[in-house]
Amino acid sequence: MSPDDDRLARATISLVAEPGDARALGLTRELGAARFLELLREHPELRDQLAAASARLAGVETERVLESAARRGIRFVVPGDEEWPAQLADLDRAGVLHDRGGVPVGLWVRGPLRLDRLGEAVSVVGSRSSTSYGDQVAAELAAGVGARGRPVVSGAAEGIDYAAHRGALSAGAPTVAVLACGVDRVYPARNRDLLRHLGEAHAVVSEAPPGASPFRIRFLARNRLIAALGRGTLLVEAALRSGALNTGSWADRLNRVVMGVPGPLTSPVSQGVHQLIRRGSATLVTSTEEVLELVGAAGSDLAPELRAPEQPRDGLSVRARQVLDAVPVAAPAPTESIARVAGLAPADVRRLLLALAEDGLVDRAPTGWRLTARGRG
Question: Among 187, 248, 335, 340, which is 20 to 30 Å from 302 by CA?
Answer without folding.
Answer: 248
